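Quick illustration, no need to memorize.
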Amino acid sequence: MDAYALTIAGRLVPLAALLTSLSVPAQAADQHAFDVPKGRLSAVLPLLSRQGGVSISVTDASLWKAQVKPVRGRMSIEEAIAHMLAGSKARAVRMSATSWRIEPLRAAPRRLPLQQPRSSPKPPSPPPHVSAAPQDEIIVTGSKTDLPYAQFAGAATMLDGKELNFGGERGTESILSRTANVSSTYLGSGRNKLFIRGIADSSFTGPTQATVGQYLGDIRLAYNAPDPDLRLYDVDGVEILEGPQGTLYGAGSLGGIIRVVPRPPDPQDPEMQVIAGLSATQHGEPGGDIAAIANLPVGDKGHALRLLGYNISEGGYIDNPLLGKDDVNRVHIWGGRGTFRFNAGDDWLIDVGGVYQATDADDAQYTDKDAPPLERYSPVEQNSRARYGMATLVFQKDWDSLRLQSSNAFISHSLFERFDAGRSGEPSRALDQYNDTRMWVSETRLSRPYYDGLGWVVGVSVIDNRTRQRRELNDRLFRSALTGVTNQITEFTAYGEATVELNPLLVATGGVRLAHARLRGEGEDVPLFKALMGGADTAKRNETDFLPSASLLFTPMDNFRLYARYQEGFRPGGLTVERSFVRHFRNDRVHTWEAGMRLGKKSETPVDANLALSYSRWYDIQADFIDGDGFPSTANIGDGRIVSLSGAFAMRPTPQLTFELGGVYNHSRVSELFEGELRSIALAAGADTAESQLPALLARLGQIPNVARYAFRGSATYVMAMGREDFRLNGWANYVGPSRVGIGPVLGESQGDYIDTGLAMRLGNERRGLSFTLTNLFDARGNRFALGTPFVEGSAGYLTPLRPRTLRIAIDVAY
């Protein structure tokens, strides 16, 4: 173990010891005080669930109308449920220490379709870090009406939280390796932009808003900042909703949303878990990781505290012979999350929480295209650091069949990046870029969770976001400020959506969002002579957007569904810098028509599949290019058309073995180019005349950047019993097709066209386990991202290779 591994171990042992000292014996209280009136199951079940501190699901929608008995007094949760259901046509089945399922009495115990006879060995239960096949109805909580997936008209990917951690927690990388329809840039952790379904704009962090909305629970993580790449420890799951989600989520959801659902504090069961691993990277340095999770009930009135802390060090593997250094790109990540749940009585819950993560990269992770593998010749150490902090306050109340929730947060997000800005034949110099974001968000909504053929939500929200981008040029003698920009937006929104069962075969959903935004922007550090020429631009304007949505879901036969959907999304405009001048760019908008089918029901049929076809019109596309000074800038380049075809297939030939396949095809064209904007881009790139540059530029603008034309993934999972332990083996392979890095003559480099592979296994049970993970089995190089620095003059280009073959050994222990 080298000095880095010893250092991280020294930092993490005190953290684990502290959280262990806070843990208490893992014995749940046997009895609880209940005061639940009689009435419909749909109205009283949330009360019993809350008072008992357990999760209760219902497998048959017809049961929601059942009349059940009152439950009053002190008793166990098992007695309470039994008393409530006495005399009804339903029964309760215990799934775990904190979850129950209510199903019709006529339903036999559920067995997998190809399960062996009773005399055969029982299939092992999945270990803690394995995704168990859900036995109950899957709920799309991102619909804001807790809509069952069976009634959801759209493409949604549901990733189990334990599955994401199986084989090692890798943040957003864990999501990317499990889906074919989500892609990313690869500047480095905390610096990347995410894309869904062919809606991609640029490679840089700048004034343009993200095309994918990212959420932690119901709180928006960022507005026009990069993916913070929060570690996904201790989450219930991740939901990916494809296509524009403007009606429910507003601006910045052109491609879709990614919603991380954290595990809430549990007022009943004390819990302590520690996960630790060591990794070895071929051609590079070792690394290490440790995380500790604690759930602490506070008192006996339903209060609880949940804590998470982690520290990760990822070994470097890029050499820089020019500086005489090896493995320069080590990354350090540490942070945590905490939530205190206060039971205020009368079914009011208040969650007060916070999130913090620090990411430090010692150097960039790209290589020179014409250099030996895994080498870069740069006179500058291109380090970066990201700091992400969030404070949250969430109120929630359930009564009768309604739910009221108010989610509020303050976010502070800063990013520093250093780029090699040297040019051929000139002394070394570096560009330092600072992006500082602060955001207030607040959303309050009233909803009726879907049951008995009806679900609806109405809400209001306010977002106030300010981002300041500053740039400095450094050489050996002095530091000079370059022109930057500040953009601020305040958005007021009201929205509503309803889902109605028109008849047993047809479900309709419709909604609308009305958003009013106030936009303000101004230049920073504008030179005096440029200011006199109009470079110190200040802009203010208001805009109002109306976003409708509609969908139909048709179920012609059991386990087969067809749907059609229309949705819109938009991004506001702002200010950008081009050759030290500040100028405007307009808002853009996406209209999407989608149709799809779903076959089977996950975990209950031996085969399930889904297929979705979408057609999008993208107006006034915001995209980035490189100006004549070598800096990123933004312009509206034209209108585009995007056709996307995605699908997934799963087969379970035996209860122990599962195969999964998935793929996506994107065909995107910038079909109506804005000639005036393109001439500006051509001139900014240093062309002699705009007219001479336009033909070449037009030829390279056919495909929208950063999204592969096609991508595929496949995996196989095998689970078996080994004495008192369970053994799980999972292997995967992902192919990412070719794409290009950006817009314009400089950013036309090709990238992609590589295969990523991995193998993970675990032996253990719910309390302890030993894991082995091997990634990049064939030690492939590939080219994930063809951009290292925007200053490419005199360079043959750049490559961002895959992390070389890496072995990780880990243990997990739960108390």
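The domain at 257-814 is CATH 2.40.170.20 (Maltoporin; Chain A).
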